[in-house]
Amino acid sequence: MSRLVSGAPCSSSASMNVHDCPPSIWIFLMAIQSLQAQAVQAGDRFEGKNVVSIRYDPPVQPLSRADLDRVQRLIAGTPYSAAAVGETIDRMFQTGAYSDIRVDAELSGDGVAVTYLTKPVPRVGHVEVKGKVKSPPNKSALLSSAGFSLGEAFDEAALPEADQRIKQLFVSNGFYDADVHVEKELDPNSQLVSINIQIDPGKRARFEMPEMHGELKLPEATILRATGWRVILIHRWKHVTQALMDGGVTGVKKKYQKNERLSATIDLEKVDHDATTRRVKPTLAIDAGPKIEVEAVDAKIRKGRLKRYVPVYEEGATDTDLLVEGARNLRDYFQNSGYPDVEVTFRKTPVENDKQTIEYVIERGTRKKLVHVAIEGNRYFKSDTLRERLFLTPASLRFWHGRYSEGFRKRDEEAIASIYRANGFRDVAVTSSLEENYRGKENEISVSYRINEGSMWLVGMFHIEGLDPEEQKPLVPQLASSAGEPFAYLNVDADRNLVLRQLYRLGYPNASFQYEATASNEAHQVDLTYKVVKGRQEFVRGVTVLGLTRTRLNLVNKAIELHPGDPLSQIAVNTTQQKLDDLGVFARVESAILDADGDARDKFVLYDVEEAHRYTMRLGVGAEIAQLGAATTNLSAPAGGTGFSPRFLINLSRIDFLGLGHTINFDGRLSTLEQRAAINYTIPHFFQSKKRTLTFGGLYDKASDVRTFSSKREEVSIQLSQKLSKPTTVLFRYAYRRVSVANVAIPDLLVPQLAQPVRIGIISGNLIQDRRDNPADTHHGIYNSIDVGVASNILGSQRNFVRALGRNATYYQLPHKMVLARQLTFGIIQPFKLPSDLSSTDAIPLPERFFGGGNVSMRGFGENQAGPRDIGMAAGANGTETQPTGFPLGGNALFFHSTELRFPLLGDNIGGVFFHDMGNIYTNIGSMSLRFTQKNDQDFNYAVQAVGFGIRYKTPIGPVRADFAYSINPPQFVGFKGTIDQLLTCNPQLPSSELPGYCTGVPQRLSHFQFFFSIGQTF
Fold this sequence. Notes:
The chain contains 17 helices and 41 strands. With 1019 residues, the protein is of the alpha+beta class.
């Protein structure tokens, strides 16, 4: 047996000069070359003998069989060659997949059996943090500090270095006793090294009184408060974190800036830790510097605006560049305010008595109004198209004096030139001029843009080199440049991105693109040639997912778009990473191509995941202030009254149930108006479609938001949702529920049918189309929904009816940041197969009827106060009637229309709304009317109108809103001033002369004024 040895990729080539390698490894290379020489001498007896077999040990190699065949210079059945062996070793090393290669050759019969003994380069695989993480630092910060990148070559020396970096991260966040162990585990099959970072952070230290030295010029107590290191009032020192430490230094800096010491320097000189008391003492070196006062001379400007435009406040320095920038900003501001001739200069006074003054001398000149902006010389583009790109704006309601500045003028010139160049006008020239006293009117100005378009340059001859016709076929229709099209370098850049993106998608990571543009024989034409070099195509050898413990592999495989043999596309790698992240079960997903820079053709793709916490709990608190209609037994106020309803919310989620990506969700609500508990079991990607979701639900809801009664709903349901497109979703749902009422303000003896529990089985379909830009605060778009359901005896229902509810909302962006929003809501409930003892109205249980009015439907009513009311009913032979109560009963038809004009009011966060609402709840579809007036106090089937004003305050969770509404024609009705017990004494069999006085009905009217306070836009 003879053994050939090669230990480094730059050592085995016979033509290699060792001096080409770093001097530190000369001795090593010389030794390797000596071993090679000895091996060649020992292998001379194999020269010329046939190679009977070529093997690799271990059998599973980091290179695919195709790559091994490509680099192998020995071929079974051909004569053995030591030179071929050496070249093979070189080529194997060049792939970057091996750290050591040895070759064994031995006689086998009349030939030679060759075995390559290899040691693959180990690479970083799954990296995990174990132990109790007390954020900060969080897991992401710990992994970043460890410094291990997925798929990179693993170096044993990196372990202690990672250990030290993580410990330092803990120390900077107050964990001085943190215990950190970084361990590795090698998978011999994949040669991937798993890194386990075991941590025990211990207890976090607290701050103590910092040491301050230098020229302070502020009391130490003031500086201490500025650090934020101690809790105010109770004076308890806070726990140390890096963010709090840095924030303290920044806070001191800001405190000095507020005291006009703009050049103050604050350095964190050192941080001392007392292990006995677990206290940290920072030392601050402070140089307060002089007070610097920035003033505007010869012109008034608010201090806040001066700070905004003069960057010395933000940068904390007074160098000349910042002062020049401040002068330029002030000039633009005054020009934009109607002073086009303004001149701004500055001067600095010497420091005297601890004070330095920076004066901006502002000579505003005469105030003028920009009344006209002209565009001349344009033939290719319409003037309106160019105006859309201009900053300069003539005077209007929004800009009283127009919007003008020299800087804006230059930007407009470049904007116009850019659009022309992008469309082939290479020689375009744009100039502008200012005209004083426009059309003879003093202090009015005009700006004219003059465009010399020049000739449009077109593409003459067009060629693509380096791609065959089949590869060009899908690309050519998408190219911005082709024969006869305008020539522009911007279009060429777009084509470059298109071509390279397509080649990357096909697995050519090293593709390159160049172009050649030469003058054509035709005037104003350019012959254009794209030169593409595809390079080597790479393919997927396999996909490995690391870090899975609970999640099932088949769930992950459904999200993977890469398969063995596919072109290795970085786009597909990133898409798969995004799809894995979208599963909602991973806190972190990383991807890497194993040995991405190596020259192997077939490569592994790695995904390293960190499974998210399975349980999530969220708590919320809210409130509503409005004309509330809580259920009551007091009959004196059927319209309710202004009330306050606090709300408490809890949401508990369990994700990745059984490792299948399923979710169990519990939602609880508690308020004075509603107690609700809902549990849902959600199966995403139902039947292997990412657009399809199946949900099983259970609901218990007890609501008292209708003045007439409180309702209870117990429901189970199953729902299938299908996303048809990005804006469109369809839902199919079957629900079986039991509904009942209690606390009925209208006594059970009067409406016994409505008080009985009823079982409802209903199947429904819902189509939703949402094209809004921002559902929480929409500025443009459209929203449509329609929900149609059928309740039938066949589905287990005790009532038979059809229910349909549709909604259409549109939003239009108007000038001056205004939005015109409108919404139409229409609904009907139509019973069928009526029981013999029920009318078409009474056949629908109270909780199933439409109720409306309030802050999200019609602001001319209090909450759920719209629609028909109890007017009593005939009883008794003497013609007397039961006493009406005036409480709302709901209806079987609904029509609401709202229009809002939304506009900025104060700053960027406060907006205003003018609105008009109209509509009502109706007895049925046949009684629906848009009449303005009420016929009598028993007529509620007309359209109530309301106008009002609202205020919106933007917050991260949506706008907080307050609405003030005036109802123009609120309904009148007859009510009862008394209790239920008193109402029952009003015997309809007695003559009216013998009834107590309280049995006489009391005319009432809903209030003209309504007020609502809540979160979110109305629609």
